[in-house]
Amino acid sequence: MPLGEVLESMRAPMDLVAGVTYRRIGIYSWGKGILRRDPATVPEMGSMKYFTFPVPSLIFSNIQAWEGAVALSGVEDADHVCSSRFYPYVPKQGEDINLGFLLEFFRSEEGVALMRRASPGTQVRNKVLSRSALEASLVPLPSRHDQDRIAAHLDHLQLSIEEPASSKSGLPNPERAWLQKAFERSWPVVPLGEVFDIARGSVLKQDAAAETLALGQASVRWGFVDPSLAKPVDDDWASRQGSHRRVAVGDLLLNSTGEGTIGRAAVAEQKDADMLHDSKVMRLRPSSQGVLSQFTALFLRSPQGQLAIEGIKGANTTKQTELGIRRTSALLMPVPPPKEQQQVVDAWVRVGPLFERVAAHRRKRALLVGSIVPAARNEIFNAMR
Fold it and tell me: What is the pTM of this model?
């Protein structure tokens, strides 16, 4: 049935009052719900028109509908307002419609495809949702009983595989908490450059064999080096200046750039020996017998180490944050006696695998939430074509 035969757009224009703050909504893409913004003053809200909207209502973003921006307002949205970019819909008088059912439809592949067809345009900023096209689009409408049953089934499926609230991010990450406690002691601190020789990778073109592989930022994982992610040496990054940088057992490899990987450190093992590393990876080789690479890698992984890394980041010409040799040399790190360093490393060897199992379990749960419910939703609505 055409959507416009059972739903109608409903919103009421409002006059903004100076000195009053208003709470605006946004809508996340891919059916991920409503964004409730912090209170804003009239000057902060700009020149757009604003509206009140019914609760509940099925709300579409007119500029992001093509990527699934649709949500169902609830009681927590009763004191919020929306701009002219949002189209709230409610059932027409006399129509018995479960808006939760229609939300599930628009979150399916078929529903997103419908919104895309109703959002003409060749560029992202021009893909504006046409209300007339949306309302003319055919949507599945089984009986009210079946609408309720399907919506309840998908809601129950979502709740059944989500992590309990007590195990979500409100509680400390066990690995983070362990590392934070391990480095809370009052140890002497020294600059990294006093106990490590630090160098970037650099390879001479004429001396690099075609089959040579080099460790880049993807190869440096937390706790280990992954040679399977090494890349071939080629003219795109090999330099005519500099000297070979080959990895030796015990070297600390530190990512100097990369979104989500900057500051990540790992210690080279026998399997990594003699491999090259590229210019995005700094090699820290102990210059003193009083420091252990494994201990330093754990410090850099800890909240204290990550805070220290944040404090030394610079920026290059591409506006990426990065770690430079001079700044990295100045990073202050704890250096207790070697015996105490080894005790921290040995303790980590015992507990680290447990933390990895916990992390693997969380990744598995996230995969369930991210794949099973969409698959069930698509199966249901594909069968209604």
Answer: 0.56
